[in-house]
Amino acid sequence: MTDLELFEEMARLARLGEPFALATVVVSSGSSPRKAGAKMLIRGDGSALGTVGGGHVEQDTLAAARASLAEGTPRTLEFVLTEVHGYACGGSMSVFIEPQGRRPLLVMFGAGHVGRAVTALAHGCGFRVVVVDERPEYAVPALLPGADEIVCAPVDAAFARLTLDRESFAVIATPGHVHDFDAVRGCLATEVGFIGLLGSRRKREALMKALTEEGYEAVRQARVVTPVGLDIGAQTPEEIAVSIVGQLVKLRRQA
Question: Considering the entire predicted model, what is its pTM?
Fold first, then answer.
């Protein structure tokens, strides 16, 4: 395995928002099994790519990497490789373990001006962004450079391609009320942790009236945050994006 292959796997996992840890030999002396610079990638499921020396060194590093991922904190392991400490090769080495956390998922329904601004800013703030828009002329990478994935499909059909859990966020800003409300209904059928709808208080009243008539109880209606975004007096798409992403970051940090 080359470092290039390891870096490519790191990039792949990062794009998918999957957690992993990188273990690097930072100091070595004597007859250590690997020298400074040797790396091993440990995925969230415990599988690994590369090696820091095998045997007890590797077993201890894998265990520490799993703990590091669970706690979200880096750590350094010191190995004295003598018979007194259970090793036979002699020498010593230090292994630094750096966890890379899962990027929170944001599904952005709508690739209009606000959707594009939210996508760009959220990507820069560490979110994995999936954009949903049925308009082919809008659902293109050139207009959405911050999107990790683009789903060009009607809202109701898009949910079959989405995996939303309690750690996920959804922001809804489609071209019309019908699509907005379809996205809300779809989100309410999942465990998504945050549902934010762009719009006026009048739209909120219309949505809640529709949900009540359709039999959605109050506790489910309360899951919908509308108008979405912090109250900063935002007017332009970029300012609205700041208010929305600011709210998402606040919720993420509180969690």
Answer: 0.74
